[in-house]
Amino acid sequence: MDSEFQGKQNFIQSVFNHQAIGFDVDHCLIRYKIKALTKLCYKVICQTIIDKHNYSSSILDLTEAEYGFALNYLVIHIDKGIVLRIAENKEIIKCYRGFTELDVETEYGPTRMLSDDFDPISSIKQHPQYIVCATYFENVIPLIFAKLTQYKCEKLNTIQLDQSEYHAIFGQIIEGLKMNYQHFDQHQVFPINQYGRFFRQISENPQLYMFKQNQFRTTLENLKSQGKVLFIVTNSHVEFMNLTMTYSYGEDWMNIFDFIFVKGGKPEFFNNPNKQTFVLDMNQPLLKGQAVNQLMTNQKIYVEGNYTLIEQYLMQRFSSLGQILYIGDHIMNDCYFTQKYTNWDSIAIVEELFEQLKPDSQNRVEAEQNIISYRSYWGNYLESNVDNQTLKNYWFSIACKELKGVVRTLDCLQNKSLWN
């Protein structure tokens, strides 16, 4: 274990000393069966694209190996139709057009770098050329981009498309993604069973896509009994959150938490102290009721909001503001920006930490069964050998250097171990 990890381990030993502990929902409190989830996301988004844009149904067909293209924190260089991953110095480790590996220096020169204006941290949300795909809901975007690129190249008998074609492909993917994931607009929140294919599949077969979390529920109840304030900040809306939390933690899961923010809009939740907060009102089209500037004793769920209400609540309850911890799977939006804009601590959930487990350990065997096998395309997630140099994954490097902790799953927190 290197010195950075030893520091993380020391922090995790004392993690539950915080006055308040907050959690993201998806891929944090909710542990998904990632292999099954990735296949579902791929199929529902591709089927939507087929229906809208008359692609052949053959794009639904992927080999098990091709699913391994779906790795977290890949970068799509839209103008060139390339999917790539970067190391801690922003050097490109590998790049592909379709499923064909390209020579990095041929595409990007001897420096193996993207353009100078590409800052991966600020580009996590938007850049005209580069898109960072940072969660297990987004990891299929590069996979679909590669599949559609390869499909069109084969159809046109070419090895490269016009720049406009790559942008059209990316636009179709984002459209398909929104038609399955984003069940609300500026006017209305739609019932999830009436929206797209994704939510309906999760709702009808939750056991295929999620693990029960009985063990960690006990941990949460123990923390609650010790007087800890427990809260949720999620970018999901209330219906999907309730569906997943009910399956994983039981019908009475809300009793565990002091307050809950849905449609939190992270990272803005952590960097905009003026962002409005609304009480949840199921009778309103946007589910947004009265605007409030403090948490209320008779109200548990809020829509949107910002971090200052939590700090204000803690000051009123304890007469002083203690340490606050937030745990999530998005290294940037959940964790990095939390520590940058607040005085909170943060821990990132990185399931790929299984690479640090002993090859024959039971935990590693179980972890590898849950995660798509990505090594044939991308090598190790945590670090790569480039020109006889061992370099950390760019995003994992940020987590190690900037965050208070990195763990494989929430169960590792329970066992006070980095990766268990």
Automatic annotation (TrEMBL):
| InterPro entries xref list | HAD-like_sf (IPR036412), HAD-SF_hydro_IG_5-nucl (IPR008380), HAD_sf (IPR023214)
What residue ranges are annotated as transmembrane?
Answer: none
The protein's superkingdom reads Eukaryota
User: Record's Pfam families?
Assistant: 5_nucleotid
Give UniProt keywords alphabetically.
Answer: Hydrolase, Magnesium, Metal-binding
Q: What does the record give under GO molecular function?
A: 5'-nucleotidase activity; metal ion binding
**Family per record:** Belongs to the 5'(3')-deoxyribonucleotidase family.
Write down the PANTHER family for this protein, in alphabetical order. 5'-NUCLEOTIDASE DOMAIN-CONTAINING, 5'-NUCLEOTIDASE DOMAIN-CONTAINING PROTEIN 1
Report what the protein is called.
5' nucleotidase family protein
